[in-house]
Structures are given as C-alpha cells and as structure tokens.
Amino acid sequence: MAHRLERIDPAQASGEQLEVVTRLGAGRGRIPTPFNIWLHNPRLAAGMEIIGTYIDHAPGLSEAENEVAILATAVFWNAPYVIANHSRHARKAGVPEDVVEALLDKRRPTPDEGRIGTVCAAVWDLLEGGTVEDAQFERYIEILGRAAIAELLVVIGYFTSVSLAMTFHALEPKA
After folding, report:
1. Dihedral sign from CA coordinates of 66, 71, 77, 80
2. CA distance linking residue 93 with residue 68, whole number of Å
3. Which CATH architecture has domain 63-168?
4. Can you say whether residue 129 is alpha, beta or left, with left for phi > 0 and alpha for psi between -120 and 50 degrees?
5. 101-118 pLDDT, tens per residue?
6. Exposed, middle or buried, 146 (CB in 10 Å: 0-12/13-18/19+)?
7. 113 exposed, middle or buried (CB, 10 Å; 0-12, 13-18, 19+)?
8. What's the pTM value of the predicted model, to 2 decimals?
9. Helix residue spans in 4-78 (DSSP H)
10. Hey, where are the domains in the chain?
C-alpha cells in the first residue's frame, strides 16, 4: 500500500499553513503527526491547533486523567498508532497498570474510587453511547466539576479525530 500521509513541504507551504506551523512550534514545541493531515486544510488545522494545544495544558484534568481519556478513545476507534503512543504516555503519567491493561483489552477499568476512577467511568459511559443516568451525572459533576467534564468531552472528541485521521491514513506505530 502506498504511504497515504502527504507532508506539507515548508518551502511550498501557503502563508496560512506556515502560520499554523509557527503556532504549533510556539504552543507545543513540535508538529504532531495528525497536523500533517490537517494542514492540507489550514483553517481546520488552525482550529485543531487551538484545541490540541489547550488539551496539552488543560488545567481541569491531570495528565493521568487526560491519558485515560485519550487511550480509551484510541482503543475504541482501534487506532494502533495512537494506542502505541498513548499507552506509553499513560504509564509515564502514572495511570495504574491495571487501568492501562483494562483499556488495552477493551474492558471497563475498575480502579479505586476518586478522580481517576470517576474519569474511567465517565469515559467508558461516553464511549458506550453517551447515555448517563442522572445520579451518575451528578456524581461526575460532584467529583470532577463542570469545567473538567467539559475538558473531558473535548479530549474525547479531539482524539476521536486524531484516531480516525491516523487510521484512515494507515499510519502504524513506530517499531
């Protein structure tokens, strides 16, 4: 199969594309792989840069909580490239090994209660179809707060886009 990812050559990039690349470098210090896909539509890439950079520095979720949401989303969408990268990031961020293994095995994680357990439950509920009973919703709000819930929804949505983009372009994890 031909390699589907067509990188933008900086020497041939449009002004809009270069603006996004510059902001990515300033905000994230690098050009994440999905942006090589999104830069073909610079306006889209600009919006994704704002969201992605925010997620990287989001105050409402810890790094471990963020990685639970990312890894669960990648596994849900069967995105090998994202799974490989974020299973490493999750472990490095301190996500308990039993949680990482449950996510990788497509099993609902059952960590101790508290924020990480609440994030696991909320992400699983959302990826199962988004139907959450009132009592469970109130528990999520009580433990995480509305700002963190808003971030969690955006992390799942953003990494759905990342996962689909990487899979559609047949990107495999680096060996």
Report:
1. positive
2. 10
3. Up-down Bundle (1.20)
4. left
5. 999 999 988 876 789 999
6. exposed
7. exposed
8. 0.91
9. 15-28, 35-38, 42-56, 63-76
10. 10-56, 63-168
